[in-house]
Amino acid sequence: GSDEATLISDRRFAGADVLATSYTLSQLIRLIGNADLIICGKQTTDGDTAQVGPEIAEFLNIAHVPYVKQIVEVKEKSIIVISGYDSYDEKVEIFFPCLITVDKGANVPRLPSYRRKIIFDEYKINMVSLKNLDDKNPDHYGLSGSPTQVDEIFPPQKRTEAIQIEG
Fold first, then answer.
1. Hey, how many other C-beta atoms are within 10 angstroms of the C-beta on 71?
2. Count of C-beta atoms within a 10 Å radius of residue 140
3. Is 40 exposed, middle or buried (0-12, 13-18, 19+ CB in 10 A)?
4. Residue 156 gets which letter from DSSP?
5. Contact 88, 126 (CB under 8 A)
6. Cβ neighbours, 10 Å, residue 118
7. How far is residue 22's CA from residue 149's CA, in Å, rounded to a whole number?
8. In terms of Cα–Cα distance, which of 65, 55, 62 is closest to 23?
9. Chunked mean pLDDT (size 10), the chain, 167 residues
């Protein structure tokens, strides 16, 4: 479970593509600070691009592993995960700070206990807007910070041919 939560919301974030969304989230993470491990969902249900998590990692200049199916071991300075691709799985050790993206099957959520519900009954979620971020330039967020515009969405055709390069 989580002990703290922060909601980032501002009308100036509206209309964001994946680049502006990931930049906004990276600015929030910088504001919160001291993150060893950032866990993102693999992708959204609207755009299905699976780009936001990796782009957050790029903005934060940290390593990332996508498509994590399982966390194998958490060490003092690293984490070992299994990343699942279409035709194979890969076991990877990644050093902190880092970001991973997980699919819905990576974890089975549990309901909070009655005692925990009572403890957090009056908890207030932290609210953050553009005015709280270090970069307050509205041209970096929302529609203004989005270099792409969506004309059409369709599922790509899967190709089965592949070239595997070793070494």
1. 16
2. 18
3. buried
4. P
5. no
6. 10
7. 16
8. 55
9. 87 94 97 94 70 95 95 96 92 97 81 86 92 96 89 82 86
